[in-house]
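Methods — Computational structure assignment.
A single polypeptide chain was analysed. Its primary sequence is given first, followed by the predicted tertiary structure written as structure tokens.
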Amino acid sequence: MSIRAQVISTIDEKGIDQMGPDDLIVKYHSVDVRSRSRLIVYSNQKAVVRIQGQIQGVFDPGSHDLQTPINPVAQFFAKFQYSGNVPWEVEVLFVSTARHEARSEGVTQTRELVPMKYQVAYYFMVTDPVKFINSVQFSGFKYTVEDFKSYVSPIVDQAVSQVLNMVSLNEVYANLHKITDAVTASLRSFMEEVGIHLITCRIVRLEPEDETMRRVVQLMALGLDVNTAIRARLSEIMAQRSDPAATNMMLGVPYYPIYILPTAGMPTNIQQLMVPPTQQRQQSQQGSSEQSSGFEISGG
């Protein structure tokens, strides 16, 4: 914010708007209100003037002279018969009335105590700046969507948990609309109390926190039964580790390494085929060394 020739707005001296796309409230503290000071409120904004901690006026988009007789701020100072610079603490809070999006996420659990991750997206806009300013608390220069998300997240978590804690894992996605309705009802009731209109709300993500459990649920959604889905997930893990038994795990058949099969009573040529390649190389190297040593002895 800046005061350029007694003009109060969110545009600074460099022409940059301090009201960013993720800002809900931008505060300018200790405003020097002079005679014929002009307050400029841009579109999708409303300005709230607070004097000595009390809200004295709300201004819609447009240009406003703070010293006109019909102005609530001018009426406030007229009570004290004071002209010139204002000796009281004056704040101008610019509130965004544009549409914003916030996402709250967390972890809850099903009836079987399976941890579930969720993410809820909700779209809203400020309709009553006075209620909104009186309901939130911030100590900085701005109040952002991220701050509002932290303020609302406990309400979202409670609404999601109330439904999900009573539902089993295999019924979660069948009851997804119930979770959405519960979150929407809780958010709408809460936001109306703080001067915000909830436009819409939706569940963006709802899945088991454990990666293996999440993969099993995905495989079951493809039509696999529980046992096959579990074997498929274990086979996937084993294949990532280059385990030769991964295919057997997927097919559900035992895996017998050929090198540990019993060889008693088998022909010699078959027994040789079942010897590991490393052992075959060691035997051949050992045989060649013995032959070379024999040649040396006979030569002597």
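Note: DSSP finds nine helices and twelve strands in the chain.
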